[in-house]
């Protein structure tokens, strides 16, 4: 998790200090400035895709006009696109690949007595999705998984598809605990234009789920009798909507699923919609299939079309686009005055919800921007620099402890940029949404603690994806090699992206409709994926031209400075990584007879008064007022 794939820039935000930040109290968002430069390539069957929305239904309200639409705008757009599909006599399907909780106050700050996501999931469910599935974030805590499962069943019925996850529930009759499916294993349906679809919703082989949840590896799922029966006869298309990355170093977990289908149906089109790594990405497993990932945080609406479905003698033609999520994009593709009454009502409801959840409460005023991915973690413009040199050293301390703290942070726990200007409760939820507690191991020899960070970064979080294909962890050498490979690919991708940005910018003066007249392209996604083929115009799927974001590869773990002049330190960390820290210290001490083994019993709570999701609030109140 939190792996940085090298194919697109990841950072959000476009406020290099020049523009004044918008006041958080102002409702509504920064209006978009850019326009798409080409229309959507409609086919016989078309799909709009979202993934990893993490509660960002209000869109990006500050500093990021490219993603400033909201769920109400999207709802209107969907309605207009459905009308357009009917006018053309083609199909338009809607899919979402999971991770709807964790990452935004709108979904995480639900006031009691309601469970997390009560309001946001109800608003999310107004969009008439054809297939929705779970992500890993729905499964970290059992009560969240249980609530999400029941609400998605209620709202979506057979369209809630989760093929390989079980949950423990109480049997109504016997009162005993039984294992149930989290969602429907599959969906078989016929589209408005009469095409037969078989849909599945696999989750990657996720290990860090709560007790009471069971996830079956996709490679095992495809061997199940129910799956083999489900694919026995040929539909017109297979639709795979799952929370899995399109590529993890070598084969992705999608490959196993597509291959299993291919053993039975070599030429039935397979449309794959993935997610999880928060990037725009596209690959083709073969010429009868396309796989799309539609970014993160409701920045992107993915579009895939397939044409030529009526002619089985040649492979169909797949196309893909990444639409910047804003009102200009919606207007360009759906026409002026695209708003519908229902869409406008959703926009209104979202603003009221944000007010009701007190998301605009201000804790302080941030003096500058701090970015998640743009700069190395040691740069003063990086949020990790802020955390490790200022926030943690000033707040996470214990005067009663003789050993000074050495705090290790998993970078995956920090989720977004922190912008210059008013710092609000809403910002706090976007940056650190998890209720993780600070734990510690007391009096660890300094010489051992000193080697911990390097070791953790070699091994990765939870054993670096625990190499689901092989069932074992990568060795330190393999990990170092993979990191180097990633850096090389990223360098190549960055230079191609820059070249593309230059080429598109030169288009600005020649675009005939006159709507796209940027003197200086704004920063945004410039995505070098693997679906462009030989056509230069199709090399990049982004439908709005941008100058690429700066980006820097981030380590999996960072830490505060190691205290000097001390024999021992207290090693402090979030509860989420307790196993990583214990394993790490024991591995580093391994081989020495005298070395003690650290066990869960040795772990204690370090501070009670602050946790991950209140850390920045406490800091802002003290440092930014
Ligand atoms: N309580 C938690 C839960 C998760 N994390 C971090 O999030 C990562 C997973 O997020 P994805 O969007 O990549 O699925 C996970 O690897 C952790 O780094 C956490 O810190 N605390």
From TrEMBL:
It comes from the Eukaryota. GO terms for biological process: nucleotide catabolic process. Pfam families: Metallophos, NadN_nucleosid_C. The keyword Signal applies. Keywords: Signal. One of its GO terms (cellular component) is cytosol. Residues 369-582 form the Putative 5'-nucleotidase C-terminal domain. The keyword ATP-binding does not apply. InterPro entries: 5'-Nucleotdase_C_sf, 5_nucleotidase/apyrase, Calcineurin-like_PHP, Metallo-depent_PP-like, Nucleosidase_C, Pesterase_C1039. Gene3D superfamilies: 3.60.21.10, 5'-Nucleotidase, C-terminal domain (3.90.780.10). One of its GO terms (molecular function) is hydrolase activity. Residues 46-279 form the Calcineurin-like phosphoesterase domain. This is Metallo-dependent phosphatase-like protein. It comes from Rhodotorula diobovata.
């Amino acid at each position: 998790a939190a792996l940085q794939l090298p194919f697109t820039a990841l950072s959000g935000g476009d406020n290099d200090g020049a523009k004044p930040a918008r006041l958080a109290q102002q409702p509504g968002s920064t209006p978009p400035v850019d326009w798409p430069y080409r229309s959507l390539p409609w086919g016989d069957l078309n799909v709009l895709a979202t993934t990893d929305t993490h509660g960002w239904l209000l869109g990006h309200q500050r500093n990021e006009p490219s993603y400033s639409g909201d769920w109400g705008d999207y709802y209107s757009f969907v309605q207009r696109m459905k009308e357009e599909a009917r006018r053309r006599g083609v199909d338009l399907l809607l899919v979402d690949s999971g991770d709807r909780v964790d990452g935004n106050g709108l979904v995480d700050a639900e006031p009691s007595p309601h469970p997390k996501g009560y309001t946001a999931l109800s608003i999310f469910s107004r969009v008439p999705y054809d297939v929705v599935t779970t992500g890993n974030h729905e499964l970290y805590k059992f009560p969240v998984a249980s609530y999400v499962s029941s609400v998605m069943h209620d709202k979506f019925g057979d369209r809630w598809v989760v093929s390989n996850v079980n949950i423990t529930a109480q049997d109504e009759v016997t009162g005993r605990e039984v294992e149930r499916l989290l969602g429907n294993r599959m969906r078989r349906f016929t589209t408005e234009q009469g095409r037969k679809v078989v849909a599945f919703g696999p989750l990657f082989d996720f290990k860090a789920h709560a007790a009471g949840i069971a996830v079956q590896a996709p490679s095992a799922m495809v061997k199940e009798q129910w799956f083999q029966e489900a694919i026995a006869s040929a539909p017109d298309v297979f639709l795979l909507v799952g929370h899995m990355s399109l590529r993890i170093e070598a084969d992705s977990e999608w490959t196993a699923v597509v291959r299993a289908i291919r053993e039975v149906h070599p030429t039935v089109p397979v449309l794959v919609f993935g997610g999880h790594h928060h990037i725009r990405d596209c690959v083709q497993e073969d010429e009868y299939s396309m796989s799309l990932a539609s970014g993160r945080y409701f920045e992107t609406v993915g579009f895939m079309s397939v044409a030529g479905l009526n002619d089985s003698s040649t492979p169909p033609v797949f196309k893909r686009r990444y639409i910047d999520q804003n009102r200009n994009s919606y207007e360009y593709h759906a026409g002026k005055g695209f708003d519908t009454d229902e869409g406008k009502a959703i926009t209104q409801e979202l603003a009221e919800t944000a007010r009701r959840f007190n998301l605009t409460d201000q804790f302080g005023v941030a003096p500058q921007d701090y970015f998640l991915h743009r700069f190395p973690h040691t740069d003063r413009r990086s949020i990790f620099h802020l955390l490790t040199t200022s926030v943690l050293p000033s707040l996470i301390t214990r005067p009663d402890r003789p050993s000074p703290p050495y705090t290790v942070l998993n970078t995956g726990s920090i989720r977004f940029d922190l912008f210059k200007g008013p710092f609000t409760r809403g910002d706090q939820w976007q940056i650190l949404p998890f209720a993780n507690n600070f734990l510690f191991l007391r009096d660890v020899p300094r010489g051992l603690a000193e080697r911990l960070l390097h070791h953790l970064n070699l091994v990765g979080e939870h054993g670096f994806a625990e190499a689901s294909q092989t069932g074992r962890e990568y060795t330190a050498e393999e990990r170092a090699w993979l990191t180097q490979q990633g850096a090389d690919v990223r360098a190549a991708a960055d230079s191609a992206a820059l070249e593309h940005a230059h080429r598109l910018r030169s288009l600005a003066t020649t675009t005939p409709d006159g709507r796209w007249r940027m003197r200086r392209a704004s920063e945004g996604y410039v995505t070098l994926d693997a679906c462009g083929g030989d056509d230069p115009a199709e090399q990049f799927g982004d439908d709005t031209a941008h100058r690429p974001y700066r980006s820097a590869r981030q380590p999996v773990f960072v830490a505060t400075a190691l205290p000097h002049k001390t024999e021992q330190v207290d090693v402090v960390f979030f509860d989420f990584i307790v196993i990583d820290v214990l394993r790490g210290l024991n591995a580093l001490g391994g081989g020495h007879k005298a070395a003690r083994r650290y066990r869960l019993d040795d772990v204690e709570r370090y501070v009670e008064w602050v946790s991950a999701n209140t850390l920045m609030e406490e800091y802002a109140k003290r440092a930014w007022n």
